[in-house]
Write a structure and sequence with these properties.
The structure is a homodimer of 242-residue chains.
Chain A (H helix, E strand, L loop, with lengths): L11 H15 L6 H7 L7 H4 L3 H22 L19 H18 L3 H7 L5 H16 L4 H15 L9 H5 L4 H14 L1 H13 L10 H22 L2
Helix pairs in contact in A: 1-4, 4-5, 4-7, 5-7, 7-8, 8-11, 8-12, 10-11
The structure holds a DNA duplex (19 and 19 nucleotides).
DNA sequence: ACCTGAACACCGTTCAAGT
DNA sequence: ACCTGAACACCGTTCAAGT
C-alpha cells in the first residue's frame, strides 16, 4: 500500500470556510465550483455531495456573514463613549446607541468582506439569517419607542445603507418560491413565531395600507422618506455651517 | 439570386438598444454575447466588431442609464408642488428642491430598469457618465450654500441611496487603470476641466485631510455621517410621534 | 458514505478566413 | 468594412459508476 496523504474529510463547513477565504483573497467571481474543488484537493463534483449546488453555497456564505455580524454585535465594544458595555444602559433607554452599534458591527463585517453587499444583492430571496438581523434591529427600535411604521421605514433606510442595496423586504412567499398559498400561510406562521417584531410590523402596515398599489411595502414611500430625512439633515448642517 | 431579407446593419447603438431590451425582459444575467447575437440575428462574434467586448457592452449600458437620468432631470415635472417648472425658483434659492428632483429622476430610471444598481455595482470603475451626474449634484449643493466637505458627505449618502451601492468615488487613477503617474495627472487635469466642482471638492478635501489612513475619501467617516443623520432624524420623528 | 469521470449545455474571447 | 467558423479555456450540473 502506498502511504497516501489523507486529507481531512470534506464537510459543508469546510467548503464554506474555503469559499470565504477564496472570496476574500480573489473576489467573489473566483468562487467557482471547479476552482473551489481545486482549493480543497477534490473534484468539483464532490462538492455537490455536501451542498445543494452553487446557489446553496452562496446562501451558505450569506449565513456565514450574518453570523459574523451577530457575533460582532454581541462582542462590540462601544466605540464612542469608551466606557464598558455592562453599564445600566439598556435598549429601552438608548435605542440610538444600540442601533448605532448594530450598524457599525454590520459595516465592520462588510468592510472585512467587501464582496458582501454584492453577494447579498445577488440572492433572489433574503435569507432567514438576514431576517434575524432585521428582527433584532426592529426590536431595538420598537422597544425604544418608535412606531412600527417608523421602524419599517428605518429598516429600509438603514438596511440599504449597511448592506448597500435596497429591495423589497419580507415577502416570504416570493422568498421561498412557494406556489401553494396554504404552504405559504403555514410557513408565514412558523416564521412569525421566530420573528415576532417583524410579524407585528407586517400586521400593522398591512392594516394601515388602504391603497396597496405596489404591495404593502411601497418602497417609493421608503425612498422619499429617507431622501427627505437626509435633505432635512443636510439643511440643518448647512445652517450651522459645517 | 435569392431575395434575402436584408437586416438593418449592426451598430453600437443597435446592440446597446437590444441589450437594454433584453435586460428589461429577462434580467441582466440573460445579457450574454451569444444570446445578444441571437436576438440581433447575428453570430456572437460579430458584436466584437462594434464593441470592445462584454465589459464594453456593460459600460455602454451604464452610459445609457446615465443618459436617461440626465433626460429625466431635464424633463422632470415637479412632483410635489404641482406648479410648472418655469417659475423663478433657481438652484441657488432652493437647492433642496432641485436635489430632490434629481434623486427622484434617478430613482425613476432605476425603477424602470431594476438591474441598474446591480450593473453599477458590477463595474470596477465609475464610468464618466456617472461622474457627470455627481458633478451636477455637487454643483447644486455648493451653489446652494453647502461646503465642499458637506457636499462630499452628501454625495456618498445620496449616491448610496439612489444607486443602491456605496463605494469609493473619484479615484481617477484606479478608474482608468493607469500605471503611469504622468498619464494619470494629465487625465486628472482633463477630467477636472469637465468636472470643476468635483475637482474643487477633491482639492479641498485633500488639503483638509491630515491623516490619510484610508485615502482621502475615508468612507468610514461618510458611513457614520449618514448613519447619524438618519438616527437623528428618526429620533426627531419619534418625538413628534410618527 | 463519499468521491470521480464523462458528458451536456452553456460562457467570453481569439484569430484566421470569408464576402 | 463587416461578419463567420472553428477553436480554446472556462462555467454549473447530471448521472452512472467506482471504492
Amino acid at each position: 500500500m502506498t502511504a497516501r496523504i489523507k486529507r481531512a474529510p470534506l464537510s459543508r463547513d469546510r467548503v464554506l470556510e474555503s469559499a470565504l477565504a477564496l472570496a476574500d483573497a480573489e473576489g467573489l467571481q473566483a468562487v467557482t465550483m471547479r476552482r473551489l474543488g481545486d482549493e480543497l484537493g477534490v473534484e468539483a463534483m464532490s462538492l455537490y455531495y455536501h451542498l445543494p449546488g452553487k446557489d446553496g453555497l452562496l446562501d451558505g456564505l450569506v449565513d456565514t456573514l450574518a453570523g459574523q455580524i451577530e457575533y460582532e454585535i454581541e462582542h462590540a465594544v462601544a466605540s464612542r463613549a469608551g466606557g464598558n458595555s455592562d453599564t445600566a444602559l439598556t435598549a429601552e433607554q438608548d435605542w440610538r446607541a444600540v442601533l448605532r452599534r448594530r450598524c457599525l458591527a454590520a459595516r465592520r463585517v462588510m468592510v472585512r468582506h467587501p464582496w458582501g453587499p454584492g453577494l447579498l444583492a445577488s440572492r433572489k430571496a433574503v435569507p432567514f439569517s438576514v431576517y434575524l438581523l432585521f428582527e433584532g434591529t426592529l426590536a431595538t427600535m420598537v422597544r425604544g419607542g418608535l412606531s412600527y411604521h417608523l421602524g419599517h421605514q428605518a429598516l429600509h433606510a438603514l438596511g440599504s445603507m449597511v448592506l448597500g442595496f435596497a429591495q423589497e423586504i419580507f415577502s416570504p412567499a416570493q422568498a421561498a418560491g412557494d406556489v401553494d398559498p396554504d404552504a405559504a400561510d403555514a410557513e408565514f406562521e412558523a416564521v412569525a413565531t421566530a420573528l415576532p417584531y417583524l410579524a407585528a410590523m407586517v400586521a400593522v402596515e398591512m392594516h394601515d395600507n388602504d391603497d396597496p398599489v405596489l404591495g404593502w411595502c411601497d418602497s417609493q414611500t421608503e425612498f422619499e422618506f429617507t431622501l427627505d430625512l437626509l435633505l432635512d439633515g443636510l439643511e440643518r448642517k448647512r445652517l450651522t455651517g459645517s
